[in-house]
Write a structure and sequence with these properties.
Structural class: mainly alpha
Strand order of the largest sheet: 1-2-4-3
Distance between the termini: 29 Å
Radius of gyration: 22 Å
Strand content: 5-15%
Shape: globular
Length: 419
């Protein structure tokens, strides 16, 4: 697929996210038999409801590949069911936490879907994120146990070995239905460094409702800052695209206080992240009134034009693995806890068949397992070797270029030289 169509697809998805997409955007993005790649981007970013809503409102179903549309509709139903279950779990655990005086706040997707989306089911949830006060973690895990959540492969409640100075959350908890809860005790990085945003969220009394039950949540301004961090620098552009919609809808909310938002962003050193988000809006000519006001409060420089263009391209691809390699190398170098290192090594050398299938795009069976496993090990050795960066150069010019772009983007967010 040529770069022109890729650009059309990126523009289509961006406009889809901010609610200004047109039929012309769709036809340009799906020309020359490129629908399959467009569907893939929709699926990877969990934008099923956004896309289907647009298609039905504009009566475009006849222009779609029938099998792909059926697949997307089926996946949308399953995602909607998961959404409903996560909303119900949020209601139940909030009641349980409050009954046990556990200080908490429901974060990101679920709270945003209830606060700024007209239809909460529109915003697909991958999991439930909850912030818990550091001193209440034991009580919180015991409460989650009552609802069937556990740490896979470990005794329920046995999380102490992972609770080291470099962490900001517990290992994911899961239930028998595959629902996932992530318990955070710090928002912006590890808990050894003071996180003002964490303190603010747990101290303030903001909430939304599910079935008339008030549930603790960050304010719009706190959510804006958290989503800004999560969508940009936390995973180096690797956490999906829906944050673009979340932030844009917050900006359009009449309840959003720019002065408060700027104060939170500056107190938590998120100036670069905000600059990058505003540059995305500039790139697609999509500023609104409040984003223009925010421009006046941010003094940090943008990335240079070349890096910005590459960063946006990679952000919208969401299919590369370079940012994942960079994160693995960084995490392994920075982690000081020996047991956590062993866990990382175990997960690297003994991956699940699901992980192998996802990373190599093939269904794993007895005939091809050994071949895929060898390929996986070869790649893992490259990632963890002493000369990881030099080894990555051997993968090929494209992957090496992407790795270098992600490294420069990471340096930009750290306020270091990105050139």
């Amino acid at each position: 697929m040529n770069q022109e169509i890729t650009n059309f697809q990126n523009k289509f998805i961006f406009n889809l996210l901010i609610g200004s997409v047109t039929k012309d955007d769709f036809f340009l993005a799906s020309q020359d038999n490129s629908q399959e790649s467009l569907f893939k981007k929709i699926e990877i970013n969990y934008l099923h409801k956004f896309f289907l809503d647009f298609i039905y409102k504009n009566k475009l179903t006849d222009y779609l590949i029938e099998d792909s549309l059926k697949k997307l509709k089926k996946e949308a139903i399953l995602l909607s069911v998961r959404n409903l279950k996560l909303h119900e779990i949020a209601r139940k655990i909030s009641h349980e936490f409050e009954s046990n005086n556990i200080r908490y706040s429901i974060l990101k997707g679920l709270s945003i879907s209830r606060i700024i989306y007209e239809d909460p089911s529109f915003r697909t949830l991958r999991d439930l994120d909850v912030l818990v006060h550091l001193n209440d973690l034991d009580s919180a895990v015991l409460s989650l146990k009552k609802f069937g959540f556990y740490f896979p492969g470990r005794p329920v409640g046995n999380f102490k070995i992972f609770h080291n100075e470099d962490n900001y959350d517990l290992p994911k908890l899961i239930d028998s239905n595959g629902l996932i809860i992530e318990v955070h005790f710090s928002i912006l990085g590890d808990y050894k460094n003071e996180c003002f945003l964490t303190k603010e969220i747990l101290r303030n009394e903001n909430n939304f409702t599910i079935d008339e039950k008030n549930i603790n949540a960050p304010s719009l301004e706190e959510n804006f800052a958290h989503l800004l961090y999560h969508g940009t620098s936390k995973e180096i552009l690797g956490s999906g695209l829906v944050f673009i919609s979340d932030l844009y809808r917050i900006l359009e909310s009449k309840n959003f206080d720019i002065t408060k938002a700027v104060k939170i962003i500056k107190n938590n050193s998120l100036d670069q992240e905000l600059r990058f988000y505003l540059d995305i809006l500039n790139y697609f000519n999509a500023h609104n009134y409040k984003s223009k006001i925010l421009e006046e409060h941010i003094e940090v420089k943008s990335m240079d034009d070349s890096l910005l263009s590459e960063a946006i391209r990679l952000l919208f691809s969401q299919v590369g693995v370079s940012q994942k390699r960079l994160l693995k190398v960084k995490k392994f170098k920075n982690d000081k806890n020996l047991i956590t290192k062993f866990e990382q090594i175990r997960s690297i050398f003994f991956p699940s068949t699901k992980k192998l299938s996802r990373e190599f795009g093939e269904t794993i069976n007895n005939l091809n397992f050994f071949k895929i496993y060898i390929k996986y090990l070869e790649r893992s050795f490259r990632e963890l070797g002493k000369y990881a960066v030099n080894e990555l150069k051997k993968i090929g010019k494209k992957q090496n270029t992407e790795f270098l772009v992600y490294t420069k983007v990471d340096n930009y967010f750290k306020n270091q030289d990105a050139n």
